[in-house]
Design goal:
globular; Rossmann fold; alpha/beta; 33% helix; seven-stranded mixed sheet; 6 helices; single chain; 7 strands
């Protein structure tokens, strides 16, 4: 078999699994600290099509943790920066970009039935709930990222059902809201680490808090990246179940 960029992965997964991944289409909502690493790992794993949804642009404060953020991408739309990286890694991957924030009022612009897997890596509760509801209605697997801000322990992340989580404040809110909506299970990646209190430093913040947040959270390079890579690993494992040697 001719060597290609996925040769080392094929040694572990086999041809049938890699062929399956090449035919899969995954939507990633939120191309930030978590979602950016998820996209990167999916592209390097041979996923055949990726839909990238985010209306944000790369800012200076993103450089500490977002894989798409460099001095060369400052000011670019994150989906464009990610699409260019994917093209340089896996040219045959079909990439669709959407410069929009996913909210309940924008949900009708997406057909979830075309996806093989959905990633929720956004910050707003209303948007997360809308993504999850759309995926559940379409019968498409979905994995959701819980809070990664103000945390420093990358080893505290784990995969669980939302209703088995603890400590994470975002997961607590999501449990309550999902229960109201009759969503009885949801795969999530979350951290059991108690959130730290950021050190006051007006000079360190150059952006406004995301919608729904009272303050900009602190972050580190090795925390959201771990969450994103765990998500990618779960997706690849789920999509290739029963096909691996």
């Amino acid at each position: 078999m001719m060597q290609d960029q996925f040769s080392r992965t094929r040694l572990l997964y086999g041809k049938a699994a890699m062929d399956k991944l090449a035919g899969c289409r995954v939507a990633v909502f939120g191309i930030g600290g978590v979602g950016g690493y998820t996209v990167e790992a999916l592209a390097r794993s041979g996923i055949g099509a990726l839909d990238l949804i985010d209306n944000d642009t790369v800012s200076l404060s993103n450089l500490n943790r977002q894989i798409i953020a460099t001095m060369d991408t400052l000011g670019e739309y994150k989906v464009d920066a990610a699409a260019r990286r994917i093209a340089s890694i896996s040219p045959d991957c079909t990439v669709r970009t959407y410069k929009t924030f996913f909210l309940p009022e924008t949900r009708d612009g997406f057909d979830f039935s075309v996806y093989d897997y959905v990633v929720d890596a956004i910050d707003t509760v209303t948007g997360k709930l809308a993504i999850i509801e759309c995926a559940k209605e379409a019968g498409v697997p979905v994995i959701s990222s819980m809070g990664a801000g103000n945390k420093l322990d990358p080893t505290a992340f784990e995969v669980a059902d939302l209703y088995d989580t603890m400590i994470c404040p975002l997961a607590r809110v999501m449990r309550r809201e999902c229960k109201k909506r009759g969503i009885r299970s949801l795969k999530v990646v979350y951290s059991k680490e108690e959130a730290l209190h950021p050190v006051p430093d007006a000079d360190a913040i150059d952006e406004h808090p995301p919608a729904g947040r009272r303050a900009v959270p602190g972050s580190a390079a090795f925390v959201p990246s771990v969450a994103g890579l765990i998500i990618a690993g779960e997706i690849i494992s789920d999509l290739t179940a029963g096909l691996r040697p």
